[in-house]
Every structure is written in C-alpha cells, then in structure tokens.
User: Fold these one by one.
Assistant:
Number 1:
Amino acid sequence: MTPAFAYWVDRLDPFLVRFSGNFGIRYYGFAYALGFLAAAWLLQRYHRAGLSLLPSDRIADFMVAAVLGVVVGGRIGSYFLYDGWRSFGTDPLAILRVWEGGMASHGGMIGVILAVAWFARSAGIPFLHLADLVASAAPAGLFFGRVANFINGELWGRPTRVPWAVIFPRSAPADEPGLLVPRHPSQLYEAALEGALLLAYMQWRLWRSDAVRARPGRLAGEFLVLYASVRIACEAFREPDAPLILGLSRGTFYSVFMVAFGLFLWRRRGEPLRGPGP
C-alpha cells in the first residue's frame, strides 16, 4: 500500500493572475471564457461548411444569450438543486457571488436550453437544429470547467489508495484539519469523459453523418444521454457534495431525467431540414 506522504497534494493557486488579496483573474472564470470562445469558433466553422442555419453575423448575439443562460442557470441551479437556498436567511446575497464558485452543470444546461429556445424563436431558426449545434460544442466548456474544478481543489473524489490519488487539503473536516486522505481526482475523470471524449464523439457525429440535417434533435439527444451516462459513472468516484436523494447522489438523480429527455429526442422523428448539409 502506498504511504499517504507519497501522494501529490493539490496546492494549486486558483488565480491565473492575482492583483491583490482575493481579487484577480481566476482559472474558473478563465475556463468559462475558453469554453465560450471554443463554442463560438466551432459555430463559425459550421457556418462556413454549410452545416448551420445560424448566420455568421448572429453568432456573437447568440453567444451573449448562451453566456447568460449558462451563468444564470448554473448559479440558480447550484443554489436550489444543491441546498444553497438553506443559507438564504443568513446570507441572501450568496446567490450573486458567482466568482466564489458554486455552478451546477445541470442548472447550466437548463439555462442554455432556455437561451436556445428564446434565440431560435427570435431569429427564426428551428430550435432542434440550433440545439444540435450547441450540443456538439458544449463538451469543450465542460472540459475546461472540470479542469478548473481540479485547480480549485473542489468537487474531489472518494477516498482511495490508487497510485494516482491526490490529497485535497480542503477535503479535511473543519473540526479535524489534520485528517487528510488521498482521493480520486474525479474532476479529471469528468474532464476526460464529459469533456474530451464527448467532444470527440460529437464532432465525429456532426462531421461524418448527415444527422444535423436529416434528424434534427438527434445529436442533442445523443449528447444528453451520453453526458448523463458518463456523469453517473463518474459519480461512483466522486464524493457527494450534498445529501443523497433516494439513495442517489444529486448528480446521478438529476442525470436520470436527462437520460429520459435525451432518449425522447433521440427517438423522435422530425422533418429533415432544408438548407444545411454536407
């Protein structure tokens, strides 16, 4: 058995640039910026390849709506889905402090869905088509976000003795600050599966098939099913960060609904689009 002192200790600075005290540019915010830039770049590529009905000059407008959907949905989702609301009586402004972390991926996805629905309606673009495009780009943001979680030393995994385990100082109980145990770097597992692997798959599906034209909503459905599936798998290695629901972690419980909605979209037979296509 590997002794505890042989494990790497996560003492990474959460600031990319620290100006003074607790003020600066955090990796967490930088990760979100990279995710949005990657999505905008992919949407431009889709347009140039003739795969997208989203005009090039409207991509920036859409990205503004998407950013608001992710940030507002992610923060509200974290607040209500993970019991943050319990502190409302003593700290009602906590919901506004996005820079302190506390963003729920499930809430962010709901926010993006609402943003896509609003923008698609206002721009006259089929909702399922725009949802397919967004779903194919979303894993890039998930990848950067999970790497930022690791740098922040948050959302750590369950105790383990595998050789690649990591000690996260913040994981020690407040009343036992010296009790540090090696844990799964579950943030990196999620970055690899929810981010890198899912991005590769979605890009393969978009570029190597005619699903975006022939079966609107199919790619979005596949994304939801696959994301929820790998999230459930990763939850087996992640320390629950809130009380269980029906014996399931919050991430697993909410992902079940994503699977159901994804299967609905996957099985749905809509009308083929007239316009984009390889």
Number 2:
Amino acid sequence: MYYLNEDVIRSIDPQDFRNRKPYPWINPQGMLTASGFDELLANMPDISLFTTFFGKQRKYGQQSHNRYVLEYEDGLALPAPWQAFVDELRGDLYRTFIKDLLGYRHVRFRFHWHYTPNGCTVSPHCDSRGKLGSHIFYMNSDRDWDPAWGGQTLILDDHGRFRTDSSPAFEDFDEEISAETMDNHSLIFGRKGNSWHGVREIRCAEGAFRKAFLVVFQDVNPRKQLLKRGRRLLRGQPLVTEKEKRIY
C-alpha cells in the first residue's frame, strides 16, 4: 500500500507556497490516499506508548502546550501501517517535495504524534530557529471528533508587530485563518520570523483526543552543524542532543 498521494504532491506549486501570507502555508486535502488514511486511522498508536507533557514551562511566558506525546525513533513498537508510512516519508518522493517546497537543500525530519485532551490549548508561538517548518497530518474522523470541539490550527497574522520572544494572546492578532482538520486535510507551513500559530482551547467529549501526526523539518546544513557542535565542545556539552538523535 502507498500512503502518500503523489498526484496531490505534484499539484502543489512551491512558488505559490512561498508567496502565501502572512508566511508560507498550505492546507491541502488528500495528501494521503483514501485507503492509506483509513488504514492509519484504524491503527493509531496506543496512548500507553505516549508520555505526558503537561505543565512544562515555556520560554517568554507562553502557556504550557499540554498533551500526550510520542516521539518516533527506530525500533519503536509501532503498528505496521505507521512504520510503513514513516518509511515512505523517509523516501525520495517526500523529501524532494519538501526540499523544493521550502527552497532548502539540507532538510531532515523528526516525527511525533500528539494526542490532546479536553481543556488544552496551544498558545500562540513561533517555532524555534532550528526548524524550517512542519507538516501536520490531522488524524481524526467524524467517528471520533466533532469539529465544533475545536482543534483547528490557527495561522496568525500580527503584521510584524510582535517580537518572537513575547507571549501575545489570540485576541492580540490582527487576523487568524483556521485550518481545515477533517476529511484527510493536513497543514504544511514554513518557519519565518513571523510564523505565529496556535490552537484555541479544546472543548471535547470526555475520553476524546485531538490526534495529529507531525513531520518537523530540520535544518541540517553541514556548516551550521559543525559550528553548533564546536560551541558545545567548548562548553563541555554533548555534541549530539537527544532530539538530534531522532532526526532522519
């Protein structure tokens, strides 16, 4: 089985993506084949594999992004369809697509799942400089999620007013664009200085989870990596972080 829909991938114009405002983003439907999407939905990783991520202090006074998190690493005991999908994402088709989309030569990936329960929010934030962007695959269907419960990623436009090391509220932004999250939609965005995004507080039924699978695009320019490890060596720090060990 193939999970990625090659026709949809090839229909996306990198220049159009990079010209989007307030920063590069696209919210395509059908990035996964219909059969692939159904197969992955039917075999979501069990929550027993996840670690809790609640009450973690964020920089700049931003609220904790509470959720259950599963980080991918080789050897993880995943359902077979998910391992096959990750293997496909690590192949030439997807990697070339993302390189062309972002306009970067040196791109590698991290993979993780987020299960978010009732009452949680993702406060407005910009991703760290080491990230080039993310691809969020929304993994809910009308069998387990009501869109009225929330969970939509919001593309936020501040017209350049806020420093990235600040903590504005949703109401402080000039405009918000709500991504579609149901029916095999996904969201790809590129990190820029003003790439503010977030998720308003979820109000879902007891026992329900907003489920998402994320591919994080990492900048692995060899020169930058060498400088980074040189600084760590001088500080007596490990040359490779635990997070970097999960970059593929």
